[in-house]
Write a structure and sequence with these properties.
The complex is a heterodimer of chains A (164) and B (199). By secondary structure, chain A is mostly helical. In chain A, 73% of the residues lie in helices and 0% in strands. In chain A, helix 2 runs antiparallel to helix 3 and helix 4 runs antiparallel to helix 5. Chain B has 199 residues and is an all-alpha fold. In chain B, helix 1 packs antiparallel against helix 3, helix 1 packs antiparallel against helix 5 and helix 4 packs antiparallel against helix 5. Classes of the chains: A mainly alpha (164), B mainly alpha (199). Chains A and B meet through helix 2, helix 3, helix 5 and helix 6 of A and helix 1, helix 3, helix 5 and helix 6 of B.
Chain lengths: 164, 199
């Protein structure tokens, strides 16, 4: 059985990896948008470069975040109450993958044309993206801290058949 | 948890907190993401002569000074946010109800895991703030105008700090997934209730 490969968190490795990779998506997107706002307001264009690099890091990281997210979701064995939250987190996760890469392409286009300027419409889109990222973090935090997926007491209860 | 804390009259949920989701683990995303990427970019700046051909090959318009800008601003942001990460951590550690008798993958009990994570958190905050001051001295005084803005010793200290953060984060992950501190579903199971009653 596959079970013999899985530890008390129902994972084949010591700790969940998805929640670690998302550090580099969450922090980088929020900081990128903050730096664009700072650059826009202070007219100090070095903030724009910092913003762009952070967005590039987020774009690369989100690929791995989705990869490990899918893997760990497949092993999560969500019980009834947790299922819709995991589904919504998955749906928004994939959408964010496309949105973040799209934003990076847009931001790179702007940077190539004029590295000293960012139009307000991009800043607005950045704020909307930040809002969606925060909502996604909330859903992910719920999966771990409210529903307890991949935590030992919940995995144990699921294995004993107490939780479906 | 110190039972006298109940005298505060906070309305604690099944997760032992007066709100649904712990705050500290969410701020940790920002501390770690910003600090590690700051170091990565300072390393990229320091080793710029090595990767220059790669950057040219891909045609990325990127200057060495920009790498050090990312290294500096990300570090400043990490230092700023970490005060809140540690403050939230201490609030939540004081309300924690660590389970007795369970041992982590490291063979540690919940209480020492929690205590070391608390002590480590303060030391790491001091370290990150100290590194930020060191980094600022290099940027604005000692190495101002030099093509390599950071000292090798500084980069070494940063890499060691990332190692310490890894160990520290492992303790934190064990508190969350192993001891299930401040976990709602685990709290309900302990009370003999089903997490399926959650909305």
């Amino acid at each position: 059985m596959v079970d013999s490969f899985l530890n008390e968190y129902n994972l084949p490795y010591p700790d969940p990896i998805h929640p670690i990779i998302v550090h580099f998506v969450i922090a980088m997107i929020l900081f990128s948008v903050l730096c664009d706002l700072l650059g826009f307001l202070t007219r100090r264009n070095r903030f724009f470069e910092v913003s762009w690099w952070n967005l590039v890091v987020a774009s690369v990281s989100i690929f791995f975040a989705i990869l490990f997210g899918q893997f760990e979701a497949a092993l999560a064995e969500p019980y009834e109450a947790a299922r819709p939250v995991l589904q919504l987190h998955t749906l928004i996760g994939w959408s964010l993958g496309a949105l973040v890469v799209g934003m990076t392409a847009w931001r790179s286009y702007l940077r190539l044309h004029n590295p000293l300027k960012v139009p307000p419409v991009y800043l607005g889109a950045g704020l909307l993206l930040s809002g969606l990222v925060c909502y996604q973090v909330l859903l992910g935090a719920k999966l771990v801290w409210v529903y307890g997926l991949h935590t030992s007491p919940v995995v144990e209860a699921t294995r004993k058949g107490l939780l479906r | 948890m110190n039972p006298r804390l109940l005298e505060l009259g906070l309305p604690l949920g099944p997760n032992g907190l007066p709100y649904p989701i712990p705050i500290h683990p969410n701020l940790v995303h920002l501390t770690l993401g910003l600090f590690i990427i700051a170091v990565v970019f300072d390393l990229a700046g320091a080793f710029y002569p090595v990767e220059r051909s790669l950057i040219k090959f891909f045609g990325i318009p990127a200057g060495r000074a920009n790498f050090f800008d990312v290294g500096w601003y990300n570090l400043v942001a990490a230092a700023g946010i970490t005060f809140f990460t540690v403050a939230a951590g201490f609030f939540e550690i004081m309300l924690a109800n660590p389970p007795a008798g369970i041992r982590s993958a490291w063979g540690w009990l919940a209480l020492p895991t929690m205590l070391w994570h608390g002590v480590g958190g303060v030391l790491l905050l001091a370290t990150i703030v100290g590194l930020t001051v060191w980094r600022g001295m290099q940027r604005f005084i000692w190495r101002k105008g030099q093509s390599r803005q950071v000292q090798w010793g500084y980069l070494g200290a940063c890499v060691l700090t990332i190692g310490a953060l890894y160990l520290h984060g492992t303790l934190g992950a064990q508190m969350g997934s192993e001891f299930a501190i401040h976990n709602t579903a685990a709290g309900l199971l302990r009370q003999g209730k089903s997490p399926n009653t959650l909305k």
